[in-house]
UniProtKB/TrEMBL annotation:
<dbReference type="InterPro" id="IPR004358">
    <property type="entry name" value="Sig_transdc_His_kin-like_C"/>
</dbReference>
<keyword id="KW-0812">Transmembrane</keyword>
<keyword id="KW-0547">Nucleotide-binding</keyword>
<dbReference type="InterPro" id="IPR021766">
    <property type="entry name" value="PhoR_N"/>
</dbReference>
<protein>
    <recommendedName>
        <fullName>Phosphate regulon sensor protein PhoR</fullName>
        <ecNumber>2.7.13.3</ecNumber>
    </recommendedName>
</protein>
<keyword id="KW-0067">ATP-binding</keyword>
<dbReference type="InterPro" id="IPR005467">
    <property type="entry name" value="His_kinase_dom"/>
</dbReference>
<dbReference type="InterPro" id="IPR036890">
    <property type="entry name" value="HATPase_C_sf"/>
</dbReference>
<dbReference type="GO" id="GO:0004721">
    <property type="term" value="F:phosphoprotein phosphatase activity"/>
</dbReference>
<dbReference type="InterPro" id="IPR036097">
    <property type="entry name" value="HisK_dim/P_sf"/>
</dbReference>
<dbReference type="Pfam" id="PF11808">
    <property type="entry name" value="PhoR"/>
</dbReference>
<dbReference type="Pfam" id="PF02518">
    <property type="entry name" value="HATPase_c"/>
</dbReference>
<dbReference type="InterPro" id="IPR014310">
    <property type="entry name" value="Sig_transdc_His_kinase_PhoR"/>
</dbReference>
<keyword id="KW-1133">Transmembrane helix</keyword>
<dbReference type="GO" id="GO:0000155">
    <property type="term" value="F:phosphorelay sensor kinase activity"/>
</dbReference>
<keyword id="KW-0592">Phosphate transport</keyword>
<dbReference type="GO" id="GO:0006817">
    <property type="term" value="P:phosphate ion transport"/>
</dbReference>
């Protein structure tokens, strides 16, 4: 890298240069003007043409300034990246400032280019596919992994990405990114029986960053798990039915020894619990496999809420809670009545089970014009906030000992989550330990139906 023209003090001492005033540089021009005027004065006095010589001195100084201006203009116009001409005075200071700013800008540009090259090299090395699209959804850039996973080719530059990845689920996701924050999984168009997880991020006005990676192995493992759970649940139903039948037969005998009766009662309780677990597993498996089934029944919410309230009163006999029903909405719901009734019932029975005897449980149906709300509020034991993010996971238990006492399967809230996902709804949970919890199911406006 070359150095600027020699201005020793300024070039080596930027701090000194930075705080020097314009007068420091103007003095060089003033010294030159004074020198020319002195020479002109002596010559003018000697030959008797004083003012003419003084005028010539000013003219020579002016010519020097015009020459400097010409050199500055010629350098800026034709050789801006070369070493500037060696000028003194104000023009020299101007050139030095321009040249120094130019060099600093080139250093910044070189650093930015290097940073961009490193970022691009890292993106090229990624196993995940990366695609950049502009405001018109046209492909601007992609890495080699995008060619392998998504079949992007050189001829696709400038094409609308929706004309290349044309699955309806992707188009729906592309137009409604916020509705699927975790992205979507689609079947690969490049390899048979392969699956790709796609995540879109919006930046700028309408530009998008697409990141995709192969999830075939995870998909296959998940499918194996589902098949195993489904198959083993079906296989368990028959022996459990047989066991339950024989246990009930022995339990109903009047001459049964009290010691044996206690044992048979415990066996009966545990087989009921296993039956409940198997039924929940089968229901969860069915929900996961029927995501595309239309949920378009019109559910009369006052009727459903009264039915849920009657069921809750029957379940509440052993607990003695105060049950309340609060309905202040005239909207009905569009969905699957059996699935929603199962989800709502799960929330109600959980509230009853985990509220100490003599507590209060309130179930309600409300709307604000934009959303519908099914709520269950209790005065129970509450939940530590650290457990809330994982509460809808399968078999997740806040307290295993307490769950064994209540006979829970650990699948109730997982079933609720899947039912709500299929109805474009979601679950909100507010809870304070030892004070109570509020479970709120939020339905979008599209799921509300106002009767005539």
């Amino acid at each position: 890298m070359y150095e600027p023209y020699p201005v020793p003090d300024l070039a080596r001492d930027h701090k000194k240069f930075r705080y020097s005033s314009l007068w420091t540089f103007a003095k060089q021009d003033l010294r030159l003007l004074a020198f020319l005027l002195v020479i002109g004065c002596f010559i003018g006095v000697g030959i008797g043409y004083f003012w003419i010589c003084i005028s010539l001195a000013f003219a020579i100084f002016f010519i020097f300034q015009l020459r400097s201006l010409y050199l500055v203009n010629e350098w800026i116009s034709n050789r801006p990246y070369d070493v500037p001409p060696n000028l003194s005075g104000i023009w020299g200071a101007l050139l030095f400032n321009v040249y120094r700013a130019q060099r600093q800008e080139r250093v910044v540009q070189a650093e930015m280019v290097g940073l961009i090259d490193r970022a691009q090299s890292s993106l090229v090395a990624l196993a995940e596919a990366v695609i950049l699209t502009d405001e018109l959804h046209q492909i601007e850039w992609w890495n080699p992994a995008a060619e392998r996973l998504l079949g992007i080719q050189m001829s696709d530059r400038g094409r609308n990405i929706l004309t290349i990845i044309r699955q309806p689920s992707f188009i729906e996701y592309f137009n409604n990114i916020d509705q699927s924050p975790d992205g979507i999984k689609i079947k690969s168009t490049v390899y048979d029986e392969h699956y790709v997880q796609i995540k879109l991020t919006r930046f700028g006005s309408e530009s998008r960053l697409l990141v995709a990676y192969d999830v075939t192995r995870v998909h296959n493992l998940e499918q194996m798990r589902k098949d195993f759970v489904d198959n083993i649940s079906h296989e368990l139903r028959t022996p459990l039915t047989v066991l339950s039948g024989y246990i009930e037969t022995f339990t109903d005998q009047e001459d049964l020894n009290p010691r044996w009766k206690r044992a048979f009662d415990q066996m009966h309780s545990q087989t009921r619990r296993m039956n409940a677990l198997v039924n929940d597993l089968l229901l969860l498996s069915r929900l996961e496999g029927n995501k595309q089934i239309a949920k378009n029944q019109i559910i009369e919410m006052p009727s459903l809420m009264n039915q849920l309230f009657d069921d809750a009163q029957a379940y509440n006999v052993d607990y003695g809670h105060t049950l309340n029903l609060d309905i202040d909405s005239h909207c009905d719901l569009i969905g699957s009545d059996t699935e929603l009734a199962s989800a709502f019932s799960n929330l109600i029975t959980n509230a009853i089970k985990y509220t100490p005897k003599g507590g209060s449980v309130t179930m309600g149906w409300h709307d604000d014009g934009q959303h519908g709300y099914f709520t269950v509020q209790d005065t129970g034991i509450g939940i530590d906030p650290k457990h809330l993010p994982r509460l809808t996971e399968r078999f997740y238990r806040v307290d295993s000992a307490r769950s064994r006492q209540t006979g829970g399967t650990g699948l109730g809230l997982a079933i609720v989550k899947h039912v709500l996902m299929q109805h474009n709804a979601y679950l909100e949970i507010d809870s304070i330990e030892n004070q109570g919890s509020t479970f709120r199911v939020v339905f979008p406006k599209e799921r509300l139906y106002k009767p005539e």
